[in-house]
Design a protein that fits this description.
about 200 residues, alpha/beta, Alpha/beta knot, 2 domains, 7-stranded parallel β-sheet, about 30% helix, about 20% strand, binds S-adenosylmethionine
Length: about 200
């Protein structure tokens, strides 16, 4: 399923009027049947591979990683936001299976990599020369609003419940928090990831 139909509302476009464009990026099946996918209008009727290739040419030097110990429903939301900001890669650390529900099929347009353990993830980050920036509200963490985020970088988020594991904290070159002022200990991991990605983009655009 790669559509986004809500009740009473049809998203996208119907069949393309003939004659059809000859550009190989266009998918004959979509031209014939219409394109109801959750993609920007500039990509209407494009083959998925053509969209990925187009996005690949312009990915930001930012990766995001999330610890996955409990089939966290936030991971889908993080993937969707990572797609929106065109990050270079999403990394699932821990369990291989992740909850795709909130991703709205956006994972098909970016690169998702699984790492069995925090150690394996740390090895990959070192091999890519990427500093790991832990993101959590922890004693000793610094406010993200007044910190300089490195370029390139990988932002590492903890699981709902336990938060960033001790091992994850240990491999982070710094741990940053989003400043809060209410009574709750933390915000939703998907919301935190969106704010942190936006802050990286804000500093690097
Ligand atoms: C629900 S929180 C984890 C629990 C939290 N450490 C605690 O003590 O309650 C899950 C994840 O969301 C992210 N998160 C939530 N609130 C945050 C905040 N204010 N600043 C940065 N990250 C946050 C972090 O990545 C965290 O690991």
């Amino acid at each position: 399923m790669d559509d986004d139909k809500g009740p009473g509302r049809e998203v996208g476009v119907g069949p393309h009027p003939e004659p059809w464009p000859e550009d190989p990026r266009f998918d004959p099946a979509l031209l014939a049947e219409g394109d109801r996918r959750n993609v920007e209008d500039r990509f209407r009727y494009w083959r998925r591979e053509a969209i990925v290739a187009h996005l690949d040419a312009d990915r930001r030097p930012l990766h995001v990683a999330i610890e996955n110990w409990s089939h966290d429903f936030n991971i889908g939301s993080i993937v969707r936001t990572a797609n929106a900001f065109n990050v270079r890669g999403v990394h699932i650390v821990g369990r291989r299976r992740w909850n795709r529900r909130g991703a709205m099929v956006t994972d098909r347009y970016l690169h998702v990599t699984h790492h069995e353990s925090v150690g394996a993830f740390a090895e990959w980050a070192a091999s890519e020369d990427l500093p790991v920036v832990g993101v959590d509200i922890l004693p000793g963490s610094d406010p993200i609003e007044t910190s300089t985020l490195p370029t390139p970088a990988v932002l590492l988020f903890g699981a709902e419940g336990p938060g960033l594991s001790e091992e994850a904290q240990a491999i982070s070159t710094q741990v940053l928090h989003i400043t809060q002022a209410g009574s709750t200990r933390s915000i939703n991991a998907g919301a935190a990831a969106a704010i942190a990605m936006y802050e990286w983009v804000r500093q690097h655009t």
